[in-house]
Amino acid sequence: MIYFSNIKKSNHDSVLFSRDSALKKLQYSAFFLFLLIQPQCSQKNELVFSGQTMGTTYTIRLFSEGKTISYFEEREIKNAVQKELDRIDLIFSTWKSESEISRFNRWPENKRFYISPEFTEVFLKSYEIYIKSGGAFDPTIGPLIDLWGFGSRTFSGKIPEQNTIEKALQNTGLMQIAFENSNGISLVKKNKNIELNLSAIAKGYAVDRIYLTLSNMGYNSTMIEVGGEIRTGNPPNGKQTWKIGIEKPDSSQTKSIQKIISLSGQSIATSGDYRNFFHLNGQNYSHIIDPSDGMPVRGSIASASVIGPDCMTADALATAILVMDPAQAFYFLSLFPGFEAYLLLRSPAGTIDEKWTQGMENFFDGSSGKTP
User: Fold this and answer.
1) Rounded to two decimals, what is the model's pTM?
2) Pairing of strands 177-180, 221-226
3) What are the helix and strand counts (H, E) for the chain?
4) 28 pLDDT above the threshold of 80
């Protein structure tokens, strides 16, 4: 959930998302980051292009590191990227009835549903983070998201009744899906109403897959962005790092930079609660739902940015952290070596405070903050 200053974007991400109907279609996309290095498309060894995938947009930037990119090479790169994104979308899109995840969601209980290697990888990572987060990251909370009007249903205009929330909670929880690896890898529903929505991790996975696709084609100086989540390769020609700005939390359409991050060979994912919400009776209700009680989160963390070696994990960690308090978030992140976090917190005085893990300082670009 990141956005770029140099492209016109569409979150799960760009203009103020209170309750626009387009949000239902842009299920994966609010961009909380700015790419600060502007494209210089006049260079013949540089290629920048964008498109649509997974209900949001993507942008690819790469350098050929010395050689000119021919017209035929350009077409080969673009076709390879789009083909891979289309393949991933056909696995994880809950908006396509023929996708693998949609077929699973229609599958009956107590019957094995055999899954692809890609589905297996994302599901197992989701399960790991679900367990380590104590359920804060839960890809089965679709019924709650719908109930609060942030999914496929339109908001009813009033707060859901407690008994309705409790009923929806009965159809959530990743423990209600069994993983079996004898005679093929499969999932088994223990509850016929349980469904998966992997949108909080699938964008990061798509970023990693495109990074690998381009690397296998010999392109290592890359920046891949899908729905705002980013992975970087070697920095651009003549640069030491990629520069990315983390957005200051602000529910208005005004966007300003809170912190500049320098990356080379790392991924970054940011989640925030201040773009997608509704306001009722003097209170904001965020799209971030606490799986433990089915209520929108009302914590102090307004934004969580996670940096690490792969984007899939960073994507899910950033989402899980928003359900926690800062102390819980930093302990949780310690369970994932190689990953660092930068948090923006709302203070009682109405200001924004900064906290980060110790290793995050290696990525700062001349800004100040407060250590945890």
Assistant:
1) 0.86
2) unpaired
3) 9, 18
4) no
